[in-house]
Structures are given as structure tokens and as C-alpha cells.
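Hey team,

Sharing the Aromatic ring-hydroxylating dioxygenase subunit alpha run so nobody has to redo it. Sequence (378 residues) first:
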Amino acid sequence: MSDIAHLPLSQSDPIEDLSLPGWTYWDADYFKVEMERVIRPSWQIVCHDSDMPNPGDWRTLELLGESILVIRGQDGAARAFANVCRHRGSRLVDGHEGCAKRLTCPYHAWTYATDGRLVALPHREDYRGFDAAEWGLIPVELERWRGFLFVRLESGGPSVAAMMAPYETEIAPHRFEELRALGRITMRPRDVNWKNVADNYSDGLHIDVAHPGLTRLFGKSYAIEAGAHVDRMSGALREQPSSNISERAYQQFLPAGAGRTWLYFKLWPNVAFDIYPDQVDFMHFVPVSPTRTMIREISYALPDDRREMKAARYLNWRINRQVNAEDTALIRRVQQGMGSSLYRPGPLGESEVCLRSFARKLRRIIPETRLDAPPANW
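Structure output:
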């Protein structure tokens, strides 16, 4: 068995030893409560500073029916706002990215500066006692952590910096602030509940069973641990050459001094970082409906034109493309099983620390999660 951090089994509450009930992966009423109590108050990743380097550069994030606009001000600061005109509620911008010196509503031409101030509107004399200072864009909380920009719809709970504080020593050598995108954000729709993606990401026991490539690379070194706000997973690359040509080439081309450990961090509840010796990815599990999730994913890397580093990055992509296909099949099977009326929560072993931690958090936030069936009335 992999070297997995252990969490003692609960002696006082047997439900702590069980996985979540199947109905929480498809029930529409539960999904609404979950979005309100879990996702809205949680940090959601948008992009990296380097994705919007110039004044006026903007990115959007679609989340729970909200469109959030993150824009670089003329002063260089990134700010987040609701992508909604204060006049009649029209969307200000369309698409995922762009650049604008000012934001002008396409409906009635109300115009906003990049810092959110209302700076112009037609027929101003029509509005008696109008104070433009009161009608700027609606702000959304934003945090910049090591170059990455996060937003949340409701305040409360720790900052991203506080959540990741226990791992700063490991993070620092990867120089996140200096990363640059290797491409654009990929949107991967999955017909599963978002928890299914999150569960799978932090599950250590399936590695040996379902990911032969990772097993060839890591051997028995894969380890997981559950922190207060972050799950940490890691695997150390073996010195023994893999029997797979892509994996063997990756082992060979990875430059000396780049490190030999793959690190994974999942921030509660639905943002993850994959930290490799050659690049860094983020994965964002965006809930769309009770049985649909959009995975936002993009890779970043430090500037490095060495041929062997370019080869390593390409091979990493080949390896993880296969891992992604394996995981996609797994979570689809689980989603199908959760829809069965015959399924009952299964036991969680001592080694399944991340799944136990995740389930415990949800049961604390939404006590109805303890029930065997959806409640009649919410």
C-alpha cells in the first residue's frame, strides 16, 4: 500500500467512517444549498497576473449564474467586479478575455473606468440628484496569492495565503510569481457532480489500481495528507526507467536540478494545483448543475528554452492526457453508481484521510448531509 498519512477512526460517531450518501451527488435541492453554503463563500481561481499584464486587460469567470470581471487598472492593480451595468443590469463584456481603456455598456453607454468608477453616462440631466460616486461597478472580493488571482462571492473564512501557509516552504522554490502561461485555459465539461471530481483528485487508493503510468513512475511513494483547508498529495519519480516510452523519455529529459517530485494541492473545496518539476497547472472544478461540472485547466511554466525542458513538458502532457482519460472514465462510473436507489454510503478506511476530511466538512456545514435520503423540506 502507498505511504498514506493516517487519521484515527472515529470512536464516537460511526457516520464519520462512511462516505457521503449517493443522493448528495444528484439532488437538485441539495445542490442549491451546497452552492450557497460551500461554493459562494469559497475562493475560486481566475487566472495568473501574467495573463493580464497591461492596464485594461480583463478576464471573466462564470460561476453559479454570476459573471465576474477581473480587470487591471491604470494603476496596475487587479480588481474584481460583477460584470453588470448599474443602470439596467446589462452584461458589460462578453467572452473570457479582452482589453479596454474604459468599459462602456452596449445598452445605454454608461461608461466605467478600469477601477470601477462610473465616469460617463448620456442624458445625465435626466437623473435628479444623481451622484456618480454611488453608482460604480459592484465590487467582488479578490485576493492575489503568489501571482494567482482568486475571487469569492461572499466574504468569510481564511484567505488563500492562510490556507496555503503550511506549504509555503515547498511552494517557494517554484517561483509562482514568475510563471507564464503555456497556452489558454481549457474548458473540459464532465457529466458528473463536482464532488466526484474533487473526491477523485484527493483519492490515494485508486492510483495503484487505475493509473498504471503513475504507478510505473512513482512506485509505492505516492502519499496523501489532509490539512485543515488543503489536501496535499505527492509522488517521487523513480530512478528505474519506465517500460513505457513516453514515461521513460520524461525521466530521461527532465533536466538535472529540476526536482523529481510531483506535488498536488487541493484547496477547499474545488481548486487544485499540480506542481511538476517542469510546469505548474491549476484545475478548477466549477459546479454547473447537480450532475454537470466544468473543469477549467491551464499550464504555466518558468521561462526556459532548453530543448530538454521543452521535451519534458511535452511528455508531461502526453502522460497526463492518459491519466485524465482514466480519471474521466472513473468519475463517470461513480456518478452512475451514485444514481442507484440501492447504493448506501460505503466505509472509509483509516488511509482515506482526504475523503474523510472532505465528508466531515460537508456534514458540518450542511447537517442534512448525514441523512440517508433527501429531506422532505429544506
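The first strand starts at residue 44 and ends at 48.

Ping me if you want the raw files.
A.
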